[in-house]
Inverse folding.
C-alpha cells in the first residue's frame, strides 16, 4: 500500500474499506471503475477508484490493485469528467510490486494528463441514454465480463451532455460488489455471475448486450448518427408486393414426396452379410483398444508409484522443516537453535517460503555489537510481530541478544515523527520504552519521563517567575488575537516597515522588545516622520509636516484618536512632486482612514476607547515582560513547545499501533533530535 502523507485518518479508513475486491463465480475478474461521493468528519470528498486483478504483489502472493484518487468537493471545479479520468488518465497504476510506503512530494500527479478520447478504441453503443439531468432513481445495467469499459464510456458521453457544474454530481460504478450499497450510486452495473448478499431493484432497467459484430470498429471520432436509415423490410417491400400478386400452384397429395411414405425394404442375404462383417470389425477394434489400455495402465502404475513415493518423501521433509521452524519461533528464537534454523531457512527458501530468511537476517543484525545501522532503524519482519489488542510484542529471548537493551521497538511511521530531543542529557524521548514491546501507555510514559528530565532547569525557577511567564503568555495571546486591535497592529506594513516596527514588536520566540514608544500617539507620529525622511522631495519634509500638524485646528492633539485624526488631515495637505510618491501616499491615507476615521459619532467614540485600551494592554504586557529574563523565557518556550509536541505524538500513537511496518531503533538515535526554539 502507498498513500499520501497528509491524508486525514477518517479518509484513510474510508479508502481501505473501499479497496475490497471479489471475483465472479467462474473465477472471472471484473474491472471496477467507480466514482463515489462521501461525507466524513474531515469534509466531503470525491473518490475515483480503479480496482482490478494485478497478479502477484511484492511478497509473491496473488493480489488485486486498488488505486484511489480522493479530493475535496471544491477541488473538483475545473477538473475533467470523472468517467473520462477513470478511462483515460495516464497515471493509473497497472501493477504494484513495491512494499507499503508513503508517497513523496516528487510523485505528485496532474489530472489533466489524459489520453485523447478520439485516440481510444471506440466501443459499440448498444446502450440507450441512461438518464437525463432530472433522473432521480437508480439505473441498473445487466453486464457480462469485459463490458465494464463500454458502460463507463457511455456514462462519459452522458455526463458530458450535462452542464459543467453538474458533471461531478453523479456517482456510478461499473460493477456492484458484495461490499457495495446500490443506493450510493446513480448508475451501476451488475453481473449475474457475481452473487450479491442483497436485493437490487431492477425495475425500469436497461439491458446491456454485446454488439453482434465481432470485428472492432475502426477508431474514428464520434460523428452524428443519421436521422433515419431504411430498414431491410422497407427495401424488400416491392418484391413482397409482386409475390402477393403471383398465382398459387397446388400439388396433389399423392405426388408430394414430402407427404408420401416410403415402403419398408425387405431384409435379404445381402443385408445379413453386411451386418455380420460390421460386427466382426467392431469386435476386433474393441479387443485392440482393451489390450492397449491394459499395457499402458501397467506402465503408468509403476511410474505413478515411483512419483508418489518421491512426492511423499518431499512433503514429509517440508512438513518437518516447517514444524522445526515453528518450534524455533515459539521458543523465542534462541541463539543455540540458530545454526539449525539457518539450514531450515535455506531449505524453505528453495520452495518459495522467504519469511525465515528475513528472520535470520534480522537476528544476525542483532548479533553485531554497537552497529550504526540501528541509528536509522532496522525493519522487523512482519510475521515476527504479535498483536494483542493495544499491545504489540516482539517475542525474542532478550538475554540471547544483548543489543536489544539499547533498542526501542516502534511503529515506523511514529519513529520518523519523534523530534523532541536536543541531544543533551542521557534521556531521549524513548529511553524509558521497553525493548521488545510497545503500547500507548508505555510510549506516553516514556515521553513524560523525558519531558520531566528536560524541564529540570525550568522547574527550578521560582514559583512567582513561573506564574509571571504563564501570565505573560496569556496576555500576549489575548492582545494578538483581539480583532479590534488588528488594524492598528498591522499598520506598519503599508509603510513597508519590518515586523520590528509594529506597535507591539516581538522576536521570533514571542518575546516583547522594550525599546519602542509606549505611547500610541508618539508611535503614529514617529511612523509617518521616519517614512517622510526616506524621500528627497522638499515637499515631503518631515519637520514641515509635523509643524503643519502641530498648528492644525489651533489645539494640540492629546489622545491617540485625536492624534490619528490630525495626522490624517495633515496628510491631505501633502503635495509630492513625483507621481509614484503621490500614489504611494494616497494608498497610505486610504489605509489610515480605514483604521482611524469613522463617519458615525458613536463608532468614532468606541474607536477612541479601543485605542486607549490598546495602550493599557501594552503597558500591562510591558510590566510582565520586565519581571523575567530572556533566558528564563527561553526555558518557558521550550517547555511549552515540548508539551504541545508530546500531546501530538500521543495522539498519533493511537493510529500507529495498528500499523504493519515496525522497526527496532537505537534509543539514542540522532533521528530523535530537533531544533526547538
Amino acid at each position: 500500500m502507498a498513500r499520501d502523507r497528509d491524508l486525514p485518518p477518517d479518509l484513510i479508513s474510508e479508502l481501505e474499506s473501499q479497496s475490497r475486491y471479489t471475483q465472479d463465480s467462474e473465477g472471472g475478474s471484473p474491472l471496477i471503475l467507480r466514482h463515489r461521493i462521501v461525507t466524513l468528519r474531515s469534509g466531503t470528498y470525491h473518490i475515483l477508484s480503479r480496482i482490478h486483478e494485478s497478479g502477484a504483489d511484492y511478497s509473491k502472493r496473488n493480489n488485486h490493485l486498488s488505486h484511489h484518487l480522493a479530493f475535496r468537493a471544491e477541488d473538483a471545479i475545473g477538473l475533467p469528467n470523472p468517467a473520462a479520468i477513470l478511462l483515460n488518465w495516464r497515471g493509473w497504476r497497472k501493477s504494484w510490486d513495491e512494499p507499503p510506503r508513503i508517497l513523496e512530494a516528487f510523485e505528485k500527479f496532474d489530472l489533466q494528463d489524459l489520453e485523447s478520447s478520439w485516440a481510444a478504441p471506440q466501443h459499440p453503443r448498444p446502450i440507450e441514454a441512461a438518464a437525463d439531468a432530472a433522473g432521480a432513481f437508480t439505473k441498473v445495467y445487466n453486464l457480462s465480463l469485459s463490458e465494464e469499459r463500454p458502460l463507463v464510456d457511455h456514462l462519459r458521453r452522458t455526463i458530458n451532455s450535462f452542464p459543467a457544474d453538474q458533471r461531478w454530481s453523479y456517482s456510478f460504478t461499473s460493477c456492484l460488489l458484495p461490499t457495495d450499497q446500490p443506493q450510493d450510486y446513480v448508475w451501476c452495473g451488475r453481473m449475474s455471475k457475481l452473487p450479491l448478499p442483497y436485493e437490487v431493484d431492477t425495475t425500469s432497467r436497461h439491458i446491456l448486450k454485446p454488439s453482434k459484430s465481432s470485428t472492432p470498429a475502426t477508431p474514428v471520432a464520434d460523428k452524428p448518427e443519421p436521422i433515419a436509415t431504411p430498414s431491410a423490410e422497407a427495401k424488400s417491400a416491392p418484391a413482397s408486393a409482386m409475390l402477393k400478386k403471383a398465382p398459387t400452384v397446388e400439388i396433389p397429395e399423392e405426388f408430394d414426396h414430402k407427404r408420401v411414405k416410403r415402403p419398408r425394404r425387405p431384409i435379404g442375404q445381402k443385408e445379413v452379410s453386411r451386418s455380420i462383417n460390421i460386427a466382426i470389425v467392431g469386435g476386433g477394434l474393441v479387443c485392440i483398444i482393451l489390450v492397449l489400455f491394459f499395457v499402458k495402465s501397467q506402465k503408468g502404475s509403476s511410474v505413478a508409484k515411483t512419483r508418489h513415493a518421491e512426492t511423499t518423501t518431499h512433503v514429509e521433509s517440508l512438513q518437518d522443516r516447517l514444524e522445526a521452524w515453528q518450534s524455533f519461533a515459539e521458543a523465542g528464537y534462541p541463539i543455540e537453535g540458530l545454526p539449525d534454523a539457518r539450514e531450515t531457512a535455506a531449505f524453505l527458501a528453495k520452495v518459495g517460503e522467504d519469511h525465515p530468511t528475513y528472520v535470520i537476517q534480522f537476528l544476525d543484525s542483532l548479533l553485531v555489537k554497537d552497529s550504526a545501522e540501528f541509528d536509522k532503524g532496522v525493519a522487523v519482519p512482519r510475521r515476527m510481530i504479535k498483536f494483542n489488542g493495544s499491545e504489540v510484542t516482539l517475542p525474542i529471548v532478550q538475554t540471547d541478544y544483548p543489543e536489544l537493551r539499547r533498542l526501542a521497538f516502534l511503529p515506523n511511521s511514529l519513529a520518523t515523527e519523534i523530534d523532541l530531543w536536543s541531544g543533551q542529557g542521557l534521556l531521549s524521548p524513548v529511553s524509558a520504552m521497553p525493548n521488545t514491546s510497545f503500547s500507548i501507555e508505555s510510549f506516553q510514559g516514556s515521553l513524560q519521563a523525558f519531558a520531566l528530565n528536560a524541564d529540570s532547569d525550568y522547574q527550578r525557577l521560582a514559583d512567582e517567575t513561573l506564574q509571571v511567564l504563564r501570565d505573560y503568555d496569556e496576555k500576549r495571546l489575548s492582545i494578538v488575537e483581539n480583532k479590534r486591535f488588528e488594524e492598528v497592529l498591522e499598520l506598519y506594513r503599508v509603510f513597508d516597515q519590518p515586523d520590528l516596527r509594529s506597535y507591539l514588536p516581538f522576536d521570533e520566540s514571542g518575546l516583547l522588545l522594550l525599546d519602542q514608544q509606549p505611547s500610541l500617539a508618539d508611535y503614529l507620529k514617529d511612523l509617518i516622520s521616519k517614512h517622510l525622511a526616506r524621500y528627497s522631495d522638499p515637499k515631503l519634509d518631515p519637520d514641515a509636516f509635523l509643524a503643519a500638524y502641530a498648528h492644525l485646528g489651533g489645539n494640540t492633539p492629546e489622545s491617540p484618536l485625536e492624534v490619528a485624526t490630525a495626522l490624517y488631515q495633515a496628510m491631505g495637505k501633502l503635495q509630492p512632486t513625483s507621481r509614484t510618491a503621490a500614489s504611494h501616499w494616497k494608498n497610505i491615507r486610504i489605509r489610515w482612514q480605514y483604521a482611524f476615521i469613522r463617519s458615525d459619532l458613536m463608532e468614532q467614540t468606541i474607536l477612541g476607547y479601543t485605542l486607549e485600551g490598546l495602550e493599557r494592554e501594552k503597558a500591562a504586557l510591558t510590566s510582565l515582560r520586565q519581571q523575567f529574563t530572556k533566558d528564563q523565557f527561553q526555558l518557558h518556550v521550550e517547555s511549552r513547545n515540548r508539551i504541545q509536541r508530546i500531546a501530538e505524538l500521543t495522539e498519533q500513537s493511537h493510529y500507529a499501533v495498528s500499523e504493519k511496518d515496525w522497526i527496532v531503533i537505537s534509543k539514542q538515535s540522532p533521528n530523535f533530535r530537533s531544533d526547538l526554539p
Summary: The longest strand covers residues 43-56. Residues 117-137, 204-251, 303-315 have pLDDT under 50 and may be disordered. The chain has 19 helices and 15 strands.
